[in-house]
Amino acid sequence: TILSAAFDADRFVERAARSVRYQTMPDLEWVVVDDASRDDTCARIAALAAQDSRIRLVRAPVNGGPAAARALGLAAARGDWGAVFDIDDAMEPWRLARLLETSETTGADIVADDLRIAPEAELHGPGAPFLGLRADEGPRSIDLAAYFDGNILFGPERQTGYLKPMFRRAMLARHGVTYDPRLRIGEDFAIVAAAMACGARFVIDPAIGYRYGVRADSISRVTRPEDVAALIAADDDRAAAHPMLRQGATGAALRRRRAAFADGLAYMRAVEAMKRR
Fold this sequence. Notes:
Number of helices: 9
Low-confidence stretches: none
Radius of gyration: 18 Å
Mean pLDDT: 94
Structural class: alpha/beta
Number of strands: 10
Distance between the termini: 50 Å
């Protein structure tokens, strides 16, 4: 199941549908959650669904943001795997087949590949690799401590939380893991971290099968204090539920991440206070 959240995204629907239809793995469905759009997003998705039974439209009753929409899509999914796909992005035709092969050869519960970053208007241009991993090193596992250390607010590293995961749905269901509707940013990082806290294995393939379009109005490019506070609360809740997140190298990494987010939140609140004089 390809999972997409869509809000006021009518201009991207047909392009996203091409990425889905051109996948070399035929046994798939595309669940698109319309997050109470105000434009023609819902109508365009419904028209595509009428033509292709693999496309399914789910309508959110109110706008809840990408995490809440993804949770609705995950609940409606029927596939063994769930693959995150933002509707304003694109995928190479071989991407899902490659990720599935990687999962089978490594035994991973969660797999992701590298991103090719490009301006939205040049999405299918050369772009630039996000992580820039060496292809000859093959897929690599990432543990929870490294995942926390690699996803620190304003940190020096390229954050692996931006990768678009594909996960075994049975594993998520077994542990009751889904998207946290409180989050407006960092929702993919959070679900991967929650699954890994339950023992899931995460593998990153160096192949670049996902095309990430940079938009000035993207939610992920506008960080608000309340969004950071929600991320801190989610980390605190996760640590309270899983004692192993408070111990050893994993606990130390999570404390470093939390301290960085607390500093960032204090900075943003200070800037807001200065703007209000």
